[in-house]
Amino acid sequence: ASMQRQAVPLMQPEAPFVGTGMEYVSGKDSGAAVICKHPGIVERVEAKNVWVRRYEEVDGQKVKGNLDKYSLLKFVRSNQGTCYNQRPIVSVGDEVVKGEILADGPSMELGELALGRNVMVGFMPWNGYMVKA
């Protein structure tokens, strides 16, 4: 836990191939993601803003309601001296529900916690020794 606090977030992180199943929950609960407050349809997406048209139930039918604006932080300095950046992960026309992630925060990819990158590693014997020798 101490090492994760000292890590610098990557500009293009990757979610792990093998995970615990809690990466989505951790990313959502981190407070770094932008979460939809009301169900609706995405009307406009920009680098700094996401607009969602609310759905309202009238006589059992969905009717267009108010337009919600979600502001994103772009390349802002954090208290730790790192770069804080949020990226939209929804597209125009997407139907969103309450609690869905609209934008990733730092150390996130598609709503999942992503603290690093997936790299390919090869182990080879050297002079008769193995990995743990």
UniProtKB/TrEMBL annotation:
UniProt keyword annotation of Cell inner membrane present: no
SUPFAM superfamilies in alphabetical order: beta and beta-prime subunits of DNA dependent RNA-polymerase
Gene3D superfamilies reported for this sequence: 2.40.50.100, 3.90.1100.10, DNA-directed RNA polymerase, subunit 2, domain 6 (2.40.270.10)
Domain DNA-directed RNA polymerase subunit 2 hybrid-binding: 36-129
Ranges in coiled-coil conformation: none
EC number from the UniProt entry: 2.7.7.6
Biological processes per GO annotation: DNA-templated transcription
Top-level enzyme category: transferase
UniProt GO cellular component terms: DNA-directed RNA polymerase complex
Database matches in InterPro entries: DNA-dir_RNAP_su2_dom, DNA-dir_RNAP_su2_hyb_sf
Keywords noted in UniProt: DNA-directed RNA polymerase, Nucleotidyltransferase, Transcription, Transferase
Listed GO MF terms: DNA binding; DNA-directed RNA polymerase activity
A Pfam family this chain is assigned to: RNA_pol_Rpb2_6
Protein name stated in the entry: DNA-directed RNA polymerase
Top-level taxonomy: Bacteria, Bacillati, Bacillota, Bacilli, Bacillales
